[in-house]
Structures are given as structure tokens and as C-alpha cells.
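Now for a specimen:

…
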Amino acid sequence: MNTILQYLPPDAAREAEPYMEEAREIRLMSTGVVAVATEKELIRLPVEITAAQLRNTLNYICRGSVYSAQSSLREGFVTLEGGHRVGVCGRLTTGAGGAAMVEPSALCFRVARQIIGAAAPLERYLGGNLLIISPPGCGKTTMLRDAARTVGGFLPVCIIDERSELAAVKNGVPQMDVGEFTCVLDGVKKSDGMLMALRSMAPRVIVTDEIGSDEDIDAIYRAVNSGVAVMTSVHGQNAGDVRRRTRLGGMLDRRLFSCVVTLSGVGEIAEVNSYA
């Protein structure tokens, strides 16, 4: 947690420190507000920051060069050591190189916590085609990361980490334990990354998070038809919700996934449907 605290303005770091064991997010706003989000509540801290401090914080996060971090900022975040991510909101300008951050209005430090054993209840299904369904904030990425770590201990696994969230690669090194036989394609579009992995890395299992586009679906079919298992996740309340909203309905109807898991809360498994 010291990784996050060192990036905060001193007064904000001092007030946030007592909450770090339970913090999920720390928010800095250009309005002066500093807040800590836990699983249960959003707490406004008795300290204010200035717009200048917000700019300086972003500059520090970007190692003194916001310009050099623009490729990441265009995706809305910067990854820190330890796998923590900083979401960035603010005023953008659009030029030949695409959108670029000009003035930050809010920074959201998302606290990364790896929970070893999170996927243990699903151990018998790991290494096969697995789909995890949950609303945002219920731990599907945490569970999927641990599934990769478990399978990557004995099989060649490739993680397609479009938003640098599963493995949290920093300077080429995963900040999370994702398994000794796991390789990571970081910052690449999920559908492109899956096809790249199939062509170049000979994985037995591909892991990627929060699928949903038509391209994602097509790439999963390609992987499965090539004999490669896919472990992935999708936003949704349950399988019925996912079936109505996305092309994943066809995969569910064909029982392409040998296991479909629904989460109802952080690490709370509401339902497991096995078709193995």
C-alpha cells in the first residue's frame, strides 16, 4: 500500500493511511475533495487538495512526463508498481495523434489486491473453457487472475491483458503472480491478442477479461476450434442477462463453456453450472 501513498500529496497520504487495509479506491478531485472508497462506504477525508497538486500528482505518476504516458492516458489509466491503477479524468484535446490529456480533473487510485486461492472453489474446472459472470466490483478479475496463476503452474498459459489489469505489467514485468508458465500480451486488443497467441505462443489455455464485442466472440471460437481452452469473464447479473444482451448467448446455448460461474459479491459464488 506504500506504493500508492507515496504518490499522494503528503496531507492526503497522512489522512488516507489509516484506511489502507480496507480501501478499494482513493479519489482525488479538482474540487478539492479527497475520498477513500471501501467495500461498504465512500469516506470524505478531512483534507483538501488544489488543482496544482492534482496536476503535480499526475506528473509524478507519469515519471515527470505526461506526454510520454499519453498512449496509456488515452485508455484512461496509468499502471503503478504493484499492479495498482490510476484512472484519469479531465480535459482532452484531439490532434493527429488522437486524444491527449491536457488538464486532469480527477484521479482514482484503484487498489490492487491479489488473493491467492480465490479460484480454489473452481479448481476442478480450471484449465477448461470457463466463463465468470458478475456485476462490476464483485471480484471476477481477482478470481480469473488466480485461475491463471493456478493453471500457469503446470500448463502454458497466455494472458491477453488489454487494460493491464490481470497481470499488471510494469516495465515488462507482471506485478501479479500469474503462474510460472504464463506469458502475457499486454495492452493489446483482446481479439487481436488471442489470435497473436494462437499463432506464436502455442498456449494450452488463453485467459482474458471482460469480453463482449463481436471480434472477441469470433476470436474465442477460433481458439476453441484450435483446441485451446479459454478462461474469461463478462459483465452481467447472471447467464440469462448475458444471453439477452450479447452474442455470448450462442456460446451458452451450445455449451461451449464447460463451466459458467456467477458471482453475487466480492468472491461470493452464487451459481456454478458445469457442462463437462
Q: What stands out?
A: Residues 195 and 222 are 8 Å apart (CA to CA). The mean pLDDT is 89. The first helix runs from residue 2 to 5.
